[in-house]
Structure formats: structure tokens, C-alpha cells
Amino acid sequence: MTTGHLKQARGRERYHPWPLQNGVFLLLSCVPSCLLTTTLRPQPTSDEILAKVLNKNFKSQAVPYSGLREYRLRNVRFAKEATVLVQVSYRPDVGTKYAVMESSGSTKLIEIVEKLLASEADASKPTRLAEYEFSPRNYEACLRGTERVTGRTCYVIELVPKHKSKYLIRGTAWVDRDSYAVVRLDGVTAASVSMWVGAPHIQLEFGEIDGVWLPTHTGAVSSGLFLGTSELEIRYTDYLIRDVDHQVASRDPDSVQTRP
């Protein structure tokens, strides 16, 4: 091979990487910019997510609403059940008020549900909200990644309460990546609710109702020394969002049709 041929061969070897790099650049130039933006979206820190969830909750807590809840409590050990239908009314300056519409089943279990309602009403008062809000003040949080939940891309957050409280959850929260609303919550209370039920395992589902995120389903399982295992299910229906500027009166309890 002549000297000229060697120079040409070495020249070809020297420039071999460039066609590959140019091909990559050409391929990237054909990808829509919106896809690149989604792929390269910076991940917020866990505390930033909690802060945005807190801000989202503040907005939801400023909106009055009413609705119906059906509490179904079942005790496995004694094979007893109870169902309590409740009308719920929430006002930001007062909190949540409950009015029992109808109840059936075990008297003891009905009393337990009524105590639960009293506890929830007390916890909903404006002066109590800071005790269990989603915030860096109450939780250590760790971002575990993202998952699709009910058609939404959600941040998966591991929650560790910073202090013991029956209103704080040790577990996992799924937070909508776009709105920063809590879509799902799964875990156990950070403290025992009572000597009868211990620290229940709770699963909560949330949905957007007329622009406001509210609970749509709750399931809880508890185990106590005396009562053994108990299962609670709460179904939420007939939400009525009341505009702050043009409030719509909540329906009179006597006019509410109970479901079969």
C-alpha cells in the first residue's frame, strides 16, 4: 500500500465517529420538543412536594361543601354489623358538622361510629388543622418514584410522622404530579386511636368534585384486645360544592333520599 493510500485510510478511521453522532443529533431533532420536556422534567424534592400539597389543601379547605356518608362497621369476633347514614356539612370558619340520618344494626357499633364522628368533627376545627396537615412540620417524606393511579401520573411518597398522633399516617401517599392533590393514602395511624381498636390500617381514595379534591372512599381495618378485628368502610356520595361568593343552601336533612 502506498503512502498516499495509508493517509487516506487513516483519514477515514479518524472521522468514523462523526456520522454516528450526526445521526443521533438528527434523531433528537425529529423528537417533538414536548416529549423532551416531559422526559427532562426536573424532579421536585420531597419537602417541595409536601409544601405544594399543603398549598393545594389550603385551597380545598376554603370551599364549603355538603354531602352524604355511609359508615359500615363490621366486627369479625362477635359477628356484628352496623350502618350509619350521615349528612355532612363543612364550612371553613367552623369545620365539619355531622347529622345522623339513619342507623341500623349493633347498638355498640353504632356508638363507636358516633364517637368517631365526634372525633372527626373536633379535628376539623380550624384551630386543629395544623396538627395533621401534610407538611414538612409533621412528616419526613421520601420520594420513591412515580406511578399511574386512576389515569393520573402520581409521585409516590413514603411518609414518616415526626410525632405520634392518631391523625397522622405512617405509610404511602400518591400525589398527582400536575395538581399536587393527594389521590390515594395508605398506611397506619402514628398512634393508637383507642384501647379498643388500636392503630388501624387505613386506605383513602380522593377524587376531584367540581374542582375540589374530596374523599371518595375509605377502608380501615383495626385490631383490639377486646373487640378483635373490625372493618370500617365509608362511602361518600351526593357532594354539593357551595361557591364562596354564591353559596347554595345545603338540602334539608328531611328531604334527603336514603339509598337502598
Would you kindly provide a brief summary of this structure?
This protein is of the alpha+beta class and 260 residues long.
Describe the structure.
The relative contact order is 0.14. The longest helix is centred in the middle third of the chain and has 17 residues. The chain contains five helices and ten strands; from the N terminus they run H-H-H-H-E-E-E-H-E-E-E-E-E-E-E. Strands 3-2-1-10-9-8-7-6-5-4 form a ten-stranded antiparallel β-sheet, with helices on one face. Helices cover 25% and strands 41% of the residues. The radius of gyration is 27 Å and the shape is globular. It folds into two domains: 37 residues, no CATH class; 210 residues, outer membrane lipoprotein receptor (LolB), chain A. With 260 residues, it is α+β, with helices and mostly antiparallel strands.
